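Handout, section 4.2: multi-component inputs.
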Amino acid sequence: MIVTEKSLRRTSLMDFLSSKKISVSLVVITFFVVAGLTAPYIAPHDPTKQSLDKANLPPIWVEGGDPKYLLGTDSLGRDILSRLLHGASVAFYVSITATCIVSSVGTLLGLLAGYIRGKFDELLMRIIDIWMSFPPVILAIAFISVLGTGINNVVLAIAIVDWTRFTRVVRSEVLATREKDFVATAVTAGFSTNYIIWREIFPNILPLIIVLSTLEMGIAVAVEVLLSFVGLGVKPTTPSWGTMLSDGLLTFRTNPYAFVFPLLATVVVVLSLNLLGEGIREKLDPKLEVIGK
Amino acid sequence: MTKLLQVQELTISFHQVEVVKNVSFEVEHGEIFGLVGQSGAGKSLTGRAIIRLLPSSAKVTGRILFKGRDLLSLTEKEMRRIRGKEITLIQQDPVASLNPSFKIQDQITDILKLHLKLDNKEAINRAKKLLSEVGVANPEKVLLKYPHQLSGGLCQRVAIAIAFACEPSLVIADEPTTALDVITQGMVINLMKRMQQRYNTSIIFITHDLALASNICSRIAVMKDGRILEVITSSKNILSEANHPYTRTLLSSILTLKR
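Output:
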């Protein structure tokens, strides 16, 4: 008998790292996470300190660059590198906390709806149908308008918008898993529903949850940038890639660097997170199809 | 002494379509009872109805008296105390019937802890003993393996060990040998006979293979289209016992080796 199903236990760390997608994206992500965590210590300047005489400097490799400002300055003379580093910590704070909320809510609801079924499942699915028929960005903007701006409200808005997709995918995987023979074995062994959900089903959908969470992190980074860009994300004074983009856009013709660098950082991070999710998916289950996104 | 199991007028229907019709039979203490029929005859559904494993869309009527109690009238909580301790199930695909995420050890000891309230050390010792009873050569090693690391035959031995772990009175074996090759099949059949004698367990042996059933069962119910056509007493000359034309058809379809 050929066993094609894979589980976490069967895939070693080395096996994971042998995937180019995983190793490359992990290096990039680790770089940005470390940069964000150590930003207060390694950033050459205060990210909010303005010095108008140093405004709109290009990076040092371009003529007119100042060696004190590696990537140049924006229209208010703030150091772009320092702002990028601090922005990384904002991006990852938002993406990690939002993903934690989304994945725990989504996993719990998905497990309950998929295993217990019945009226609870029916009601939850209709709520999700309604929820998902709103354009996600509009929904996020609406919540921010109610909650007010600020980094934790961004986290909340992302969680409120994205729990639906996560719940749906987890539920459909639970529906497939509960029909497996080993679940019948556990039922006929006299185990409780609680035991079956957490010992029989949860460990076997964990690979899916990990993949979904990685993809969710990428989405959260992009949404935070977007919300901050339109002025509905973090407070305007907080250095975030989104606020940098909106500031940089104003001076794009005279100083494109203030716009290009935060854009580059966003694209590289989101791409890496998606690549990481894709790589893990391939390693854990070649048959697994991530639906809904 | 009352019969261990009495199934009376069992009818199972899905959306008004009856798939098991008015089935009645009895299983004695320590008996191997065969349920034989083609695919779709309703034999697996009948077996699964006894341990109440049917989906909620199934409508089950009739009575299933186990040690005098009607299983169909029990609450889910009462049923949980019977499942695994009094009645267990062995399934067709041995590898799929074990949880891929846990070691064999966890899967055996969990059920021992649940029903016999053993502590971890006692449970591991009992698991080792069970595995050697089902003919596993090196139980210590196998306990630490995951299901996918074992062969189908070995997984079925583990599944049998789990089914007999709490010394149940009734084991429902749902085509336990269908997914195995003939040699492993023979070993598993002998093993089930041995375990049945050791624990004086009754077995409901569900199979499509009349020859196999006549080899292991004391009585065989032949099912077709959701009905029991006849119950025959297995003997050396099964041909003389079979009266119903369908049973004769089944018998004549057994392939014989050319000499």
